[in-house]
């Protein structure tokens, strides 16, 4: 049987999953595609780890660069990061190898350079595992939805952040407690910065936006805010207004401008995305002909991520070379990125105020001065930092106006703490 030779560089969580899948399901795959997928080499700094997976010694290399001298058709980059990984991917392409990667950070920042290089060389650069782990969301965009103009994407695409918010919602615990649990269970990294500060989700929504809206979208084009300042109080108050708090990645065309953002978002509690809990991921994509479509599954971990990596390898084996959309390589009009100050959204505002007559009037006046219309208001008789929470939701308003109003309100002598602000998406 004809075979495709695959070299794996990086045998950590994902790499070892890929080795296990390619060996464990070897027969299933070759029966399906009529070709054999052969592991040409596995490179990792820890040679013993690779040996324990049953890879023969002559196929194990202790360095990714050395491995590139070994003959193979496909190089699978699974070391992560944007330095060595970038050099390895570039070199593999220069050597005429197809490349598969799960590295969202690399593609979000250097995708344009790498995809152009791959196209010029006539090799594939595939990346199904870079967004949504095991969920075939990239394949859905590039194949199933290819005839549609994409209107909007809403993603819960960071499992760690979703686990933390779910625990805070269900158990009433603080962010720090939930993060500790996530680390104990191995969901969050020892350094969970990229997850909780929103940058991992930003990398992923940059990739989905690039595929959907025909312009290179990089991390720097994404408005990012993490989940560290979310408190159980806001989760509970959101519930009283009928919302759940999720770290939502959003990409949508508004007035022909592209709005790409990642931030804690209040969404209606009866919406299907509100019920995506724990480490699960989901992505809602609306196309102009298909309408709303939804993709759900495990967004991380050894097995789900390996499943996505192997689907790319199989694509290459069967000759599905697919590059990112052609329009990305052409000059011409591209949607502009909307500035965050121009976002129009409904807002949740929690003021920490003294409990005295006239407080609501003072707040409402400033909001009115900036053209911000209050939708609902609520005052709770609980003590936070010596004051009471006064909570309002607004009708759609311009973010810069809300910012200016809050700056003014926070200077009032009846306001005791900086106001907590959260955007609302009615979906
Ligand atoms: P790991 O840290 O578990 O694995 C990376 C492995 O690569 C480590 O064993 C590391 O060794 C090795 N390595 C680093 N540099 C080299 C080198 N120069 N030559 C050979 N081996 C090297 O990472 P993951 O498996 O978790 O992630 C891999 C990629 O997949 C990342 O881009 C990540 O973002 C992405 N991804 C991960 C998911 C997950 O659930 N884990 C989900 C989706 C995507 P050492 O430890 O000694 O440095
Ligand atoms: N750290 C990521 C997450 C891994 O928690 O979703 C998958 O990309």
Automatic annotation (TrEMBL):
- The record lists NADPH as bound by 104
Q: Which family does it belong to?
A: Belongs to the homoserine dehydrogenase family.
Catalytic activity entry: L-homoserine + NADP(+) = L-aspartate 4-semialdehyde + NADPH + H(+)
Q: State the pathway, as annotated in the record.
A: Amino-acid biosynthesis; L-methionine biosynthesis via de novo pathway; L-homoserine from L-aspartate: step 3/3; Amino-acid biosynthesis; L-threonine biosynthesis; L-threonine from L-aspartate: step 3/5
Keyword hit for Acetylation: no
A GO molecular function held by the record: NADP binding
UniProt: NADP(+) binding residues: 9-16
* Chain positions recorded as L-homoserine binding sites: 189
* Residues annotated as the enzyme's active site: 204
In short, the EC number is 1.1.1.3
User: Which residues does the UniProt record annotate as the domain ACT?
Assistant: 348-423
Q: Which top-level group of life is the source organism from?
A: Bacteria
Keywords, alphabetical: Amino-acid biosynthesis, Methionine biosynthesis, NADP, Oxidoreductase, Threonine biosynthesis
CDD domains the UniProt entry points to: ACT_HSDH-Hom
InterPro entries (UniProt xref): ACT-like_dom_sf, ACT_dom, Asp/hSer_DH_NAD-bd, HDH, HDH_cat, HDH_CS, NAD(P)-bd_dom_sf
Q: What is this protein called?
A: Homoserine dehydrogenase
A GO biological process held by the record: threonine biosynthetic process
């Amino acid at each position: 049987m004809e075979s495709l030779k695959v070299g794996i560089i990086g045998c950590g969580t994902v790499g070892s999953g890929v080795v296990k899948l390619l060996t464990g399901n070897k027969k299933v795959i070759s029966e399906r595609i009529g070709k054999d997928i052969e592991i040409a080499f596995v490179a990792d700094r820890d040679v013993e780890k690779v040996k324990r997976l049953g890879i023969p010694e002559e196929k194990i290399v202790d360095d990714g660069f050395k491995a590139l001298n070994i003959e193979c058709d496909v190089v699978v980059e699974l070391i992560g990061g944007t330095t060595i990984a970038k050099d390895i991917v570039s070199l593999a392409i220069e050597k005429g190898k197809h490349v598969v990667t799960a590295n969202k950070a690399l593609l979000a920042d250097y995708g344009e350079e790498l995809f152009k290089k791959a196209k010029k060389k006539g090799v594939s650069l595939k990346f199904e595992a870079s967004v949504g782990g095991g969920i075939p969301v990239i394949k859905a965009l590039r194949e199933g939805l290819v005839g549609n103009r994409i209107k909007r994407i809403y993603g819960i695409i960071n499992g760690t952040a979703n686990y933390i918010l779910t625990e805070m919602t269900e158990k009433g615990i603080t962010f720090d407690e939930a993060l500790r649990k996530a680390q104990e269970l191995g969901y969050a990294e020892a350094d969970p910065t990229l997850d909780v500060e929103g940058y991992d989700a930003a990398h992923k929504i940059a990739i989905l936006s690039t595929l959907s809206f025909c312009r290179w979208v990089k991390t720097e084009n994404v408005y990012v805010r993490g989940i560290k300042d979310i408190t159980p109080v806001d989760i509970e108050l959101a519930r009283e207004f009928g919302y759940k708090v999720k770290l939502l990645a959003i990409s949508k065309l508004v007035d022909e401008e592209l709005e790409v953002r990642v931030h804690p978002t209040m969404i209606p509690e009866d919406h299907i995305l509100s019920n995506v809990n724990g480490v699960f991921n989901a992505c809602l994509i609306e196309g102009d002909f298909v309408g709303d479509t939804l993709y759900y599954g495990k967004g991380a971990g050894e097995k789900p991520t390996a499943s996505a990596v192997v689907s790319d390898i199989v694509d290459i084996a069967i000759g599905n070379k697919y590059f990112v959309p052609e329009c990305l390589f052409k000059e011409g009009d591209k949607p502009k990125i909307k500035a965050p100050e121009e976002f129009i959204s409904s807002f949740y505002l929690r003021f920490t105020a003294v409990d005295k007559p006239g407080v609501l009037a003072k707040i409402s006046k400033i909001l009115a001065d900036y053209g911000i219309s209050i939708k609902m208001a609520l005052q709770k008789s609980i003590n936070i930092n010596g004051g009471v929470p006064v909570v309002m939701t607004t009708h759609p308003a311009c973010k810069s106006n809300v910012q200016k109003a809050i700056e003014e309100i926070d200077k009032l002598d009846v306001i005791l703490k900086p106001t907590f602000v959260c955007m609302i998406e009615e979906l």
